[in-house]
Design brief:
Blueprint lengths: L19 H16 L4 E3 L5 H8 L7 E2 L2 H7 L10 H13 L5 E4 L7 H10 L4 E5 L5 H17 L5 E5 L11 H17 L4 E3 L6 H11 L4 E4 L7 H7 L3 E3 L3 H18 L13
Parallel strand pairs: 1-8, 2-3, 3-4, 4-5, 5-6, 6-7, 7-8
Helix pairs in contact: 4-5, 5-6, 7-8
Length: about 280
């Protein structure tokens, strides 16, 4: 792929962003992590402070943002209620403050997936989740193709983690039918240029095996939720990536609330509390 300069309007002139060469290198690194036999574990972050804490761990190879968590931080509900400008600014600040590749949760693309990804690349993002929300098949595939085309125009091997909500939105449909739908949609997204297919939901061993059989090893991404398989088992089954969505923020806020209750009861700050940022 030929490297081409990013357009001037991809940058906020008041904020420095990673160079195009650095963006290109980070995109290649993120793609390699998805293709490796080892599962890519991504503990989702929502601001520079949380990203700094996670990035400082030697086990961290790349960062992923959580749209739900970012929206909550600013007082918005999930589902593209947060202004796209604010989302792009936030993920850009995260990318600016780390040397690791950053994949952003860009929901369904905020009405213009190609343009949203172009802007995200401009602030240093090298991968993204894109939801299909079970929109018509053709429309969903076209959205994936738009993102791939936009990334190619920027000269970046952008890592698109194309999400299908076939399981989350299956309603009363039999599970087998929903899994078959996820595979059909996922194949179309891969054919359109996606690097991986994200199938959120509680994925047990049988469903994981079917997804990998239908889409290929190192081509399926899952979310870790209470009750999920251990990452090592997903790795053995051929899953490429596991992320945790808004759950890390919920874990942090649960601890924060517990600490506040203890302080109100006359307690003390927990022993071992560190300055991490």
């Amino acid at each position: 792929m030929t490297s081409t300069p990013l357009p001037d309007d991809a940058y906020d002139p008041t904020v420095a962003h990673p160079s195009h060469e650095l963006i290109h290198d980070r995109a290649d690194a993120l793609l390699a992590l998805h293709h490796a036999p080892e599962i890519l574990t991504m503990v989702n972050v929502w601001d520079v402070a949380s990203a700094t804490v996670i990035a400082d761990l030697p086990e961290t190879k790349a960062l992923a943002t959580a749209s739900h968590a970012i929206a909550a931080m600013f007082g918005y509900e999930d589902g593209e209620r947060i202004p796209v400008d604010l989302m792009i600014e936030t993920v850009g600040r995260i990318a600016l403050n780390t040397s690791l590749p950053v994949s952003a949760d860009l929901e369904a693309g905020y009405g213009d997936p190609g343009e949203t990804v172009r802007r995200a690349i401009g602030v240093g993002i090298v991968g993204a989740n894109l939801e299909d929300r079970m929109r018509p098949h053709i429309e969903s595939v076209e959205n994936v193709a738009e993102v791939v085309k936009a990334a190619e125009a920027e000269g970046v091997r952008f890592v698109l983690n194309a999400r299908t909500d076939a399981l989350l939105m299956r309603g009363e449909r039999p599970l087998d039918e929903a899994v078959a739908d996820a595979i059909e949609r996922g194949r179309a997204y891969l054919d359109a240029g996606a690097a991986c297919v994200f199938v959120p939901g509680l994925i047990d061993e049988a469903v994981a095996e079917r997804l990998v059989e239908g889409l290929g090893r190192q081509r399926v991404s899952v979310i870790g939720v209470p009750g999920s398989l251990a990452p090592q088992r997903y790795e053995e089954l051929g899953i490429a990536r596991i992320s945790y969505g808004p759950w890390p923020q919920r874990v942090a806020l649960t601890a924060f609330r517990a600490s506040a209750l203890d302080l109100y009861a006359g307690g003390h700050l927990p022993e071992g509390t560190q300055l991490l940022t």
